[in-house]
Design goal:
The protein is mostly helical. The chain is built from 10 helices and 3 strands. The N and C termini lie far apart (51 Å).
Length: 249
Amino acid sequence: MKKLILLSIILIVSVSVSAQDIAGFVSRQMETYPQSRLLDIYKSCFQDYMGAEHLVTDRQRVKAYLDEELNTTTLDDLLPWLYEPCGAEGNYVRVSIRTIKEGIISADLLLDAFIRSANPGNRPSVESWCNRWHEILEVIDTMNLNYPNYAADKLFIDSILSVGKYAISHSPEYREAYHPHYRIVERNIFNREILTLIKKWYARMQMNKESSLPGAINPNALKMPKHDPYRKKFNDMQLIGIFGSHLKR
């Protein structure tokens, strides 16, 4: 009996924490991207759960698309962050192509990390994602966020899930306001291969605060998300110590 009671308490706490994590993510999303719609919340959540939208079978085609994106965007076109976790759990990370344009990583490194992340050994089923999404949606429904087109977006999402699909694009409002340019990378690959280079870049910036380094073009690129579901980034005090007055929130 005591074991059953303990198990029930653990399950209740687990559900509660999960709901808090979802609500926290949604609140941060709306604070950072006020032009978001439910479609954009959904997109970040399915990226967190499923990873990239499609398996990658044609490397040259994916490379050509990345090259075109790099050639047709400037630093001013890009959001100021280098990366941000997806969804409430951060199983995958959005890595901005700013990391390439700032000289932090190579295009080939990001391409390889993206392709390996897009081809996992065991991708979750659409059915399991559908169940997870409805759990997330139950929390969002309680938040009374007054999203534009909320009811229509819910119906659209349900319609694609009902036919066994899950991937969607950002909303037109999000694309117009934020011009997203990123690639999805699995968290462990990101931590091992990309985050280490970002930290080295920050260390160089610390050593050369008053000089202009290659790849340190725009001070806004020093911004990083405050919130980290998997708690692997520098904390705020460390960032302030590194950048001083250059750190802009």
